[in-house]
Amino acid sequence: MVQESERLSLRTKLLLALGQGVEGIWITVGGYYVNKFFLETCCLEPALVGLIQLGVGLFDAFNDTLIGALSDRTNTRWGRRRPWLLFGGPFLAASYVAVWNALPLQTPQELKMLYYTFAYMAVSIGLTSVRVQISALLPELTNDYNERTVASGFNVVGANVLGLTFAVLHSAIVGTENKPSSFLQSAAICASAILLFTWTVFCGIKERYVAPDEPLPSKGILTEIAWAMRNKSFCYVTLMYLAGPTAVTLTQTNIALFCKYVLRDESILMLLVPVVQGTGLFMIPVWVFIANKTSKKHIYLLGGSMLAASMVSLNFVESLEASLVIGVAVGMSLAVPYLVPISMLPDVVEEDEELTGRRREGVLSGLFTTALKLSVTAGSVLTNLILEQAGYVSPSSSCTASGKVVSTVEPDVQPPAVLQVMRWLVGPIPAMFILLAMFAAWRFPITPEVHAARMARRAASTAQIAKEKMDNVKSEPQEHGSAHNEAHEAHDEPCTKVVL
């Protein structure tokens, strides 16, 4: 059972935001640069990059849920969640460096694929060990509907601030030359920050979970998953967290190639990233304010409409000025696909507890995080398979030593079909995923009124249990006294008769 708490301290919110920022570093830096790194620095073929992402995505399908279930069962002097932060931090830092290590160009393509698959899987394990705990801690720390939205806003701000900071740092270090040594230098700095931030959260956060006096018997993971899948609210919020971030991932994954080949100026990305992420950061408090005045569902429908329209507009961009204007428009609603589902998940946890009688933050957070990772998988796999079919050409300027046969097309220029595909991958296709997420938001059944009614039932149930316990405590001495008096009267009765 969770201790009742209405408001979180600023310190706790900042610590949770710092933990979310660990994921933000990977999502932002990796989202904008890792696919291009694989294609044009590691010189992997697009189909192999797609296979790497597909393999990691399948691995994530059980990795996140398993770690979430294990964290629910963890019982140490540090708590349930904090041990995962203690040991997950250094593992994530080491695997982060491994992903950005460019193997020699002469390395066979198959060996490269194996190396980056296992390195990527290691990042997945480390990221899950941190991310699931941050998601699971929020519903344990507060039951207030609006407070959860505010705390989720802090989390998204943390992810955006740290993601933007390290993305800009990465851009400054790597530049447009894309030297392997520069990627390693950037990775070492980011990994050090990941380790520092994770251990700071471990040292600073305080868990409030109180284990029940008589814990319920544990169920198998498949049973836990089946219970979650029968919860319509959880299915809708998970679909939102899959479809919305998939749209963002598609745009992020392809924007570097879009700037280089469509706009013919790779340096535009160094301006576009701060514009998009900075605008998104500025708008987070605005979205939190609107959500507290209306509902989480309403801001998703509003923000999703804005984001879909902005993404479609990217298909028609031809200049730096136009790209920056649309970048601002995208940034205005960029946080919505992350902020709203994250703030909805704690409400789903309460509904799940009412339906199952169990507190399962870890399992639900694990499945929920799987959706985000699958969105990255879907975005990258779709990107690379389409680029391969369209005829993507590895750039001669960086891949001539890889042993591949380079096309006769002019170096660092792509065929018209690839350019058109890149336009669709940053605009119309992501917009379709946003529309799917908006449908899920429209169908999400937990409103502020529904949540308030559930909390009222919970408070009434808690009060009734407390009253019953108090009545039992009061009745025990009375029953004992009554029995004693009856025994005394029985003992005295013969004496009375003798006197008479």
Question: How would you sum up this structure, described in words?
Answer:
By secondary structure, the chain is mostly helical. It has two domains: 418 residues, MFS general substrate transporter like domains (Growth Hormone, Chain: A, Up-down Bundle), CATH 1.20.1250.20; 32 residues. It has 17 helices and no strands. Helix 1 crosses helix 8, helix 4 packs across helix 12 and helix 9 runs antiparallel to helix 10. The longest helix has 52 residues. The N terminus and C terminus are likely disordered.
Which CATH architecture of the largest domain would you pick? Answer: Up-down Bundle
Query: Which secondary-structure class do the elements indicate?
Result: mainly alpha
How many beta-strand segments? 0
Give me the Rg, rounded.
Answer: 27 Å
The CATH topology of the largest domain: Growth Hormone, Chain: A
CATH 4th-level superfamily of the largest domain: MFS general substrate transporter like domains
CATH class (first level) name of the largest domain: Mainly Alpha
Order of helices and strands: HHHHHHHHHHHHHHHHH
Global outline:
globular
Gap between N and C termini, in Å?
63 Å
Count of DSSP helices? 17
Describe the largest sheet.
none
Name the beta content range: under 5%
Q: Uncertain regions: pLDDT < 50 for 5+ in a row?
A: 1-5, 402-411, 486-500
- Mean pLDDT score, rounded? 82
